[in-house]
Structures are given as C-alpha cells and as structure tokens.
Amino acid sequence: MGDADYLKRINAARVYDVAIETPLMAAPQLSSRIGNSIFLKREDMQPVHSFKLRGAYNKIANLSAEEKARGVICASAGNHAQGVALSGRHLGIRAVIVMPRTTPAIKVRAVAGFGGEVVLHGDGYDEAAAHASELMARDGLVYIHPFDDPDVIAGQGTIGMEMVRQHPGDIHAVFVCVGGGGMLAGISAYLKSVRPGIRVIGVEPEDAASMGAALAAGEQVTLPEVGLFADGVAVKRVGDETFRVCQRHVDAMMTVSIDELCAATRDIYEDTRALTEPAGALAVAGAKKYAQETGIRDEHLIAVTSGANVNFDRLSYIAERAELGEHREALLAVTIPERPGSFLKFCHIVGDRPISEFNYRYADDSEAQVFCGIKLANGTAERDALIADLRDADYDVLDMSRNEMAKLHVRHMVGGRARGVGTEVLYRVQFPERPGALLKFLQSMGDRWNISLFHYRNHGHAHGLVLLGMQVSDADRQACRAALDAIGYEYAEETDNPVYQRFLKAP
Q1: 124 shares a domain with 232
Q2: Per the confidence metrics, is the pTM higher than 0.85?
Q3: Domain's final residue, options 109, 143, 177
C-alpha cells in the first residue's frame, strides 16, 4: 500500500464514532527541565484510556455486513481487548475476547463492562491466542489483529492527523511508543505525507526492542524473550505491514531502561496528575533521553502518552524506581570501620542530603557494611562527587544504582549473613505469576540441592522476580545449570555480584 493510499485511509478513518480527539497538552515543568517545549498527546484520555480504540473501531467499522453478522474475536489481556469490546458494543455486534486466566481481575471486569464476551483460557498470551484461533474457526468469527492490519494502522494514524492540526507551528520531532508497530506506522505514514520535515522516532524498552532490531537488520526479527514490565509493548515480532511502513517512514529508533520509564511516569504525573501505564510513558522517556543526548534547545517535541491502564499494585514499584531513573537517588554500599564515631563521620560527608534508606547490622568487630539510599539534587554529577568524597575519607564505596539485584532484592534483605551455608550459588529467576509455578520448579530441581536463600516480592509484573540461593558443589555447577535450563524459566547467575559478596554471602 502506497503513501497516498494510507493518507486517504487515515483521512477517511471512522474513529470518532467512539474515540475522541485527544488534547495536545503542554508539559511546563518537564519542558523547563529539559530546555525544550514538550507537548503530550493525551491518548490516555480515550474512553478506554488507550489509543487502541482508534484502530480496533476503524477495522470493525469497515467490515462487510456479512462479517459483522458473524461477530469478531481477539486475544488480548490489555488495551486492545477493551477497544474491541467497546467497538463491538457500539456497532451492535458480538465481540469475543479471549484472555489468559492470569489477567488481573480489574482488566477482565473492564472488558466485560464494555460489552465484551470474555473467555478465560490458558496461563499466557500464546495459549489464549491459540484458543482464539480455535473459536474463530469453530464459530466463523472475524479476527481483529492488534496492529498488523491496514485499517488498524489507519485508525492509529488519525493521531498524527490531529497533531498537525493542533500544532501548526514547527515540530522538531514526534516520539511514539512501539510494540507491534501499528501506531508508529500510522503516525509516520501520515506525517511524512503532509509534514515530511518532522522527525518520527520510535521508543521501545531495552528488553523488548523488536522494531529496532528489525529495522537494524533490514528484515523481520523474532526476539527469543521480551521483558514484561511494559506489557503493552511486549511483542517479540512486529507485524509484516507495520515493519514495511516503518522501514519507509521512521527516522530513528531508541530504547529506554525501566528506571527511565518509571521516571517518565512521574514526570507525566507532575505535569498532568495522570498516572500512565509503563508503556504509556515510553514516548516521554524517549523525548527526555533524546534531548539530553543531542543537546537540542528550544525545540518543540511531541510525545504520545498512549495509555493509562496501570495495575494499582505496580505503583509502589514505579515510585521506587523513578528516583533512580531520574538520577535523584544513589544506592551505595559503604564499608565503615566498626568503631565509635565512624557513622558520625560518614553522616558529615553526606551532609544535608536526605537519606532515603539506611540498612545496617553488626557483623563483626572490624568493619560494617552499610546499604544506603541518598537523595540527590543534581543527578549523576552529585553522585560521583559524593562517592569521591567518601573514598577520599578512606571509605570503600560500591555504587549500586544500576545493580538490578540490589534494587530488586538486596535492599529488602539486608540484615545478616548465614554461617555454615557452604558452597552457595545465587541465581535471579523469573517465575511465571501463576499457580503451581514454584511447585513445578521444586519438583524439577528435585532434592539434589538444598535451597539456602529465597526472596520474592510482588512488583505487579507478569513474572515473579525471585532471588534463589542453593548449596551446590563445584562439581555439580554444570548439572545445576542444566536443571535450570530444562525448567525453561529465565534466570541469571549472581554468585559473583559484589552486592551479594558484601551483604549476603557467608563470611
């Protein structure tokens, strides 16, 4: 399909029967901080709190009368499900939504509330999608793809149409979150047809960068795994049509970390009092990073806040990581002599900086290991200066601000070292958040190795993040890793992590 065809489809897209023209809002606080004028395209304000309604409705509205009579079906645990459900209700047609059994109840209720016929099946998306295919064949339903369809792409492209109408002046760049690529394809196709000088930049999480990988390779790429924190964009392989369009029109792709994503979520909240979902903050995180890396000043940037269907139990995790993402907190491990006055000396060096966390437990009479979080006013420069001051005072300092094991687990575990553990090995393991996951793990590992440490916190992820210690002899290391490989859960060894060595390993 050519550029003229997409321009025609976007101009004629039937989205406003159910969707609204969302506002383009200035973000004054964030703009002041990054030295550029940033505007938020508020797709989180749609009736289903996501842009997905545009594409879903445009696709369903363009079905033939015979197809509408048959009804539609999709497999989704998120925003696409709500868009299909509301579209079906508005058009008076049957809309079957297959969702994994592990879908949070709030999302199931939302889909049912929008008129969707909810079918719960399987423990993950792949099983739900397979069941949706069976029901589609059995009942003659029409499948509504979440992104790889010209009518879906055209529906999302109306966002770009609204942008240029709402901001007729110069626009340096538009930032768009990317999962399967439907919104990026639609917006880029429209903007490059009417305002080709605007840079269109796609933004992905570091652990789910499927479009960036495909564009870099010049062909479709299937990622072996994707991170699920930004579940709205957790796509292993982008669509064929979305890839083709993006390859033609997208100027650049970039990635951001989870911490940068959490910081952007807070930035949006501070300017709008709206709480976006992780995927909904991707474009803002990308715009901030782009401004910092390129050094541009006084330019106009637009970022799409794509959705606000966030799980409430994830908010504490987002808040915790936002400080690190904005470099407003340093996590440090400091070795302090175990003698009177050493803690006071440490506090003098920290000065009047707020201490967000301080964990310490007596270990022996020679030295103490302190795990501390310190608030920063001037980001990485202040952190580096503080570390230099501490080292000049002969303190041994380890910067843990980028250490995932420290951030996810050890900050909640500091308090003592186990004696008599012997040859302990340490792993970070992602357990599926479903009944029986731990039992499956223990049964598969058998009773060959004793579990010496186990730490789990619910972060609102689709996976449980577990820190696991086992007593494994040197001769059994390879066999242990083979057993972990056979289970199929993603894992990483952390035995040599310096945070483990300081705070958890037996003396």
Answers
A1: no
A2: no
A3: 143
